[in-house]
């Protein structure tokens, strides 16, 4: 082992609690990628004027005798695994580049509503669901990153299954689960959580017409994370999340790479 | 303090070493943003066919009585603070979406060549510079994220000062510092580092014509981080870095948000 590694370095480590003696090195932690890739199948809102486009600028041997590949791309901000910055639904809310990154880094809880969703694809998380979760796992602390697991990432990128409808340019017949307004009010205004994340296309349900959850979150500069992937790999509590968005100046959101860090078993 | 926070959560913490008793909670750590914003001033290679473009799709009150803002954007992969995936210069190298994120998370070292650069804007880091750094700070461990500090981020986004030339569509007269081939060979082939990062536009110097550093790194699936910002805020050793790129399927690189985590003083 190198001198540097033994004596000077400062690796990220995880512990069961700040006061725990069982600290572990990040090198031992499992890194889970919660982001879908951006490609021609990336899902955008039905009314989106465009999709993800990748254009090849170069791909092959150069005159200099070496290989070179380079592309350009275009995308609406709100598609694929992406951030909702508060300004998306609040005129004076923070833009994507203004969000304090510390808000997007921290302990995560995963609230699982797959049973409710199996009976009702329009299921909206309730305040009662949250108090039931807290009865089992403890009261949510301020700054928590809340992840809602509906199981819908298994449908991605099948538009009809994921959105509940695939009529082009029509967002009136969407059916998918997400947060409900009373749950959002409890999480944002009472628990002061930092982020609302979900494995569907929106932090409001597909049938929402007034986007109350977005508005409740945006009003308090709470960020949204939409189209998350594979939340079934996370425990209800114990994971930490790091969500780092593209730094689009003035952006209302944009592509975000989201990871969960799990301690070794 | 909530029950959850006391008994169950698993926050990320930092320690001076994995065996240190002085572990600290991430909530106490300083999060430094090492990324420039994407905007109309974002710098691309002089021969780039396009720049960053943000198009407003909506911004204002809706018929529903609430505010709504949304944009789309276009960008070449290689501009602003961005990732170089190995396929950028290696035909069979990993693409942006294929990189193991664990490679982009870890302890960082910052090698400071500002003194050399003050005398020579074409300065290329040498193997001797690295062995001198190691004499002071210990041998670099495998998996290290190497950050080269030239001081050039202070010039960004002034194209003439940052690239050393602002002739449109001409990359032949660029003058800025970066890694040299013998340094890259030592770092990649002997030390097995994970990432080469720099606060200039390229991991090769501006006058490079054969991009040897890119090719040495790409051949071993070492990732590049270019146009980093504000490395003067980091210590030579002791920071951890998390670099999360946009997950562009088949991408040769792309926008990346890079943070450094510092323990409290």
Automatic annotation (TrEMBL), chains A, B:
Pfam families, sorted: Cyclase
Keyword Cell inner membrane in annotation: no
Gene Ontology MF annotations: arylformamidase activity
Annotated GO biological process: L-tryptophan catabolic process to kynurenine
Superkingdom assignment: Bacteria
Record-linked InterPro entries: KFase/CYL, KFase_sf
Cleaved signal peptide residues: 1-23
UniProt entry keywords in alphabetical sequence: Signal
Keyword Signal carried by entry: yes
PANTHER family the record matches: CYCLASE-LIKE PROTEIN 2
Protein name: Cyclase
Organism whose genome encodes this protein: Ahniella affigens
């Amino acid at each position: 082992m190198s001198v540097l590694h033994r004596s000077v370095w400062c690796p990220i480590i995880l512990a069961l609690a700040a006061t725990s003696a069982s600290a572990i090195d990040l090198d031992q932690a499992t890194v889970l990628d919660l982001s879908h890739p951006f490609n021609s199948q990336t899902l955008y809102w039905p009314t989106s004027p465009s999709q993800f486009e990748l254009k090849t600028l170069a791909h092959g041997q150069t005159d200099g005798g070496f290989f070179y590949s380079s592309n350009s791309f275009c995308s609406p901000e709100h598609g694929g695994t992406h951030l909702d910055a508060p300004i998306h639904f609040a005129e004076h809310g923070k833009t994507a580049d203004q969000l304090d990154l510390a808000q997007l880094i921290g302990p995560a809880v995963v609230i699982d509503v797959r049973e409710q969703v199996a009976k009702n694809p329009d299921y909206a998380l309730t305040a009662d669901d949250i108090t039931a979760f807290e009865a089992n796992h403890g009261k949510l602390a301020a700054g928590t990153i809340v992840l809602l697991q509906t199981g819908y990432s298994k449908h991605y990128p099948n538009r009809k299954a994921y959105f509940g409808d695939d009529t082009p340019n029509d967002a009136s017949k969407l059916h998918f689960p997400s947060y409900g307004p009373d749950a959002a009010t409890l999480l944002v205004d009472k628990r002061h959580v930092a982020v609302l994340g979900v494995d569907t296309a929106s932090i409001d349900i597909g049938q929402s017409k007034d986007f109350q959850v977005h508005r409740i979150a945006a009003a308090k500069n709470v960020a949204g994370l939409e189209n998350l992937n594979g939340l079934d790999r996370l425990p209800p509590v114990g994971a930490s999340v790091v969500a780092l968005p593209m730094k689009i100046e003035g952006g209302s959101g944009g592509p975000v790479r989201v990871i969960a860090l799990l301690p070794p078993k």
